[in-house]
Each structure stands twice: as C-alpha cells, then as structure tokens.
Amino acid sequence: MIATPTTKPHTGKDYLNLTLTATDKLERSPNQSLLPLTAKINDKDHLEIGGCDISALVKQFGSPLYILDEVTLRTACSQYRDGFKTHYPGESQVIYASKAWSCLAVVGVIASEKLGFDVVSGGELYTTEKALAQLGDSSQEIAEKIYFHGNNKSVEELKQAIEIGCTIIVDNWLELETLTQLGNSQSGSSIPILIRLTPGIECHTHEYIRTGHLDSKFGFDPNQLQAVFSYIAQQNVLDCRGLHAHIGSQIFERQPHQDLAGVLVEWLKIGSESGLNLRELNIGGGLGICYTEADDPPSIEEWVKAVSEAVIKACQRCEIPLPKLIAEPGRSLIGSACVTAYTVGSRKEIPQLRTYLAVDGGMSDNPRPITYQSLYRVVLGNRMSAEMTETVTIAGKHCESGDIVIKDAQLPQTHPGDILVIMGTGAYNYSMASNYNRLSRPAAVLVNNGEANLIVRRETYDDLIKQDCLPQRLLP
Ligand SMILES: Cc1ncc(COP(=O)(O)O)c(C=O)c1O
Fold it and tell me: Of 26, 178, 196, 335, which has the fewest CB atoms closer than 10 Å, so is most exposed?
C-alpha cells in the first residue's frame, strides 16, 4: 500500500503522502487512500479537498457536512471501467451499487463516467431513473443501465421495474412466479432477468456484510438451481440473461472472488445446457477500502485483473464463450471520495480512564461504528500540522452510550469550534443516515477545482415534521 502512512501518524500531515507528486496521487487507486486524492494542506494549515478549504466549507454550508470529492469518485469509476477494458477481452459493464450512496448528483457523476446502476428498492430505482432522465438518457438507455436487486421486492416494485424495462435480479421462487404472472398479463416484450445464487463461498469480513455463504437470506440455494433453470426454460415471458452472486463487502483477499468466478461459470454452463441463453455474469461487488493505515486492499486494477483472469480461465475450462462480465462495486467507488466534517463541542475528562470529545453528529449520520464496530481515522482539519498529543474518544451527540465515532483517536489538543474530519465516509454513511433523536440529516457538497456545489441540502426542523400527522381529535 502506498497511500497511507505505515507508522503511527504524528500530525494530520502524515495522512497525506507528501512525498508523492500531485500526478502520482491522482494515479493512485482511490480505495487504497485514506483521504480523497485531491487532499492538500493550504497556507492556513487547513485541509483542502477538491481545492476547497474545509473550514470555509463548514462556514458556508454548516456542520456536520459530507464533502464529496469529484476527482476521486471519477478516478475510481475510470479505473474500474478501463481495468475491464484492459484485462477482459469480452464485453464488460461496471454498475454502481447505489446502496452505498444514492442521490441525483452521485448518479449524475457516475453516469457521465459511463457506468450503470444496481438498485435495491423502488426508491433507489426512482432516484436513478429520475436522474438519468434529467441527464437526457432515453428510456432504452435507462433500461439498459439499471439492474434491480432485492430479496423481497414488492409487486409494486416489480411492476415499476417492468415499466422501466430494467434487468431484474431474481432472488427467490416467489419473485420468479410473480414475474411470470406479471409477464403473462402484459403484452410487452419478455422481462430481462438474472438469477442470484448463494455460491457457498466464505470470506473474512463482518458477519452482517457477508452474503455468499450458504446461510444467507439472499439468492437461490445452488440445490435449487436446476429446477429454476427448468422452470425458466418453459416461460416465454422471461429472458434469463445470466447469473449473479455477491459474496460480501470490505474484502481484501482476491481468492474468494476468483473462486466465485469459477462457481458462476460452471453454473452458466449448466444453465446453458438446460436450454437458456445465458450470456451475462455478474460477480457482485465487495472490494474493500482503507479505513485505517492497517487496511491493505488490492488496487481496483489488481482486483479487476484477478477477477477477469479467473472468468477467462473458467470459461476456457468449461468451453463456453466469454459472457458479458458485470461488476457492481459500491464502497470502493465512493467510500474514499468523501469525508465528514464535524465541529468539536463539549469535553469530558475522566482521570486515568478516558477523555470524551463530543461532536455535533454521530450515529445518525454514520451508523457504521455502532452497527459494525467499524474503525475510522480523523484529522484536525483546521490545524493539520499540529502534533497529535492526546488520545481521546470522539463521541456523537445522541442519547446512546454506544454513539462513539472513534474510540481512542489520536489528535492534537482541540478546542470547541475546531473541525474534525473523518475519512472514508462516502459509502454507507449518508445512505444509512437516520433522524435518530430528531437530528436533521447533514448537507452534502460536491467539490472540484475550488468549486463546491450543494448536492443534498441540510434538513430543516420543518423537514423533520413534514411527514407527521396530528389527528383532529387531539386538537383542542
Ligand atoms: C448485491 C450487492 N451488490 C453489490 C454490493 C456492493 O458491495 P460493496 O459496496 O462492498 O462493493 C452489495 C453490498 O451490500 C450487494 O449486496
């Protein structure tokens, strides 16, 4: 790993690899960098991202604030896209797992990099479709770009997907039968589907984000696949294009995805022998990113190369043509592109035990630490060269003792009003945010070349009560 310090950092500066030239930094694999690729320290000793001073951003847009670096996001997109072009001779498509962060502007940036989209709910589907339509895509282009996932899609969601014409990734028998009924009751063309299977592959990641082992709620058990293929072969209304599996998230090993390629290609062959025209293979997402200097994921290109070679080899072994290869990364596309800026507030010192430093957000804008015990790193954004002289626990402001952003963080002496910048918050932060304790969800800005554009406005108190209803009979 080249992007992060391997020894304990002494100042915020150590998180920027200052020995690299600006061009070297932009060629890095974003998932191997703790800070966004454009991170710099300016002459005020402030952290700058996308040419924007973090303190100035907080002054302008408030705190907490998600700051999304367009260059880092675009670099990750192009490394995936170009990686497949280089290493996979067949057709390929990279689709962004919208669950990592779905909003109109994120769709806009990613669509302009020619990626497609994986969505998992009617809401994500709606957001993506609306953004693509506003960006000028035709309905056929929109249909071709979207893949719809989910282990319990409602009939309404399935109808919405059929109306849009996107590919539906079928997860279970109920869905398969419902789609057949819906297809038979309409006069349109056949419904494009992929079949999701549980490949029985273990990987070393948190139990909650592991999905490929047999005891998983997602996808068909391999024992059922032959029956699934026979069923689909009899349904004219279903166009089964291929297979999908996703084994988990935040994975640093290459072997599980290589094993997965072998398993999927074998099933592709069996499905084709059952009379289906299987021509797509979706390998899921899962490549990890650096949240701390101890994390050591392969680069995007290394991962793409490993997966491509495994698919090519398996196809040669099974003597089948190369399928269209699809990957659907989320975290490794957007995770490292964003930081969250918080403002320091109160402090509680418990002698010989712990010092708590409270910030103005926490588990409502980043539920990952309390959900998965996830680790993060922090810098003092308004004094990047200050020596890290103390160990403090950064606490959120919610009424939960477990609302801890970072336990035992290294920081310089801080004062109320200082800006703490948590790195690697692009994935599964905004998208998992809540209004717990009726906190308003923060604003998000997209930064590039010294310009900051609001992409999600901060919720107001009025937003918080917008959906509430006060029954008449409770009124005086
Ligand atoms: C089906 C599916 N595809 C893709 C992803 C994206 O995974 P990651 O963000 O680890 O790349 C997920 C994440 O949960 C998923 O469930």
Answer: 26
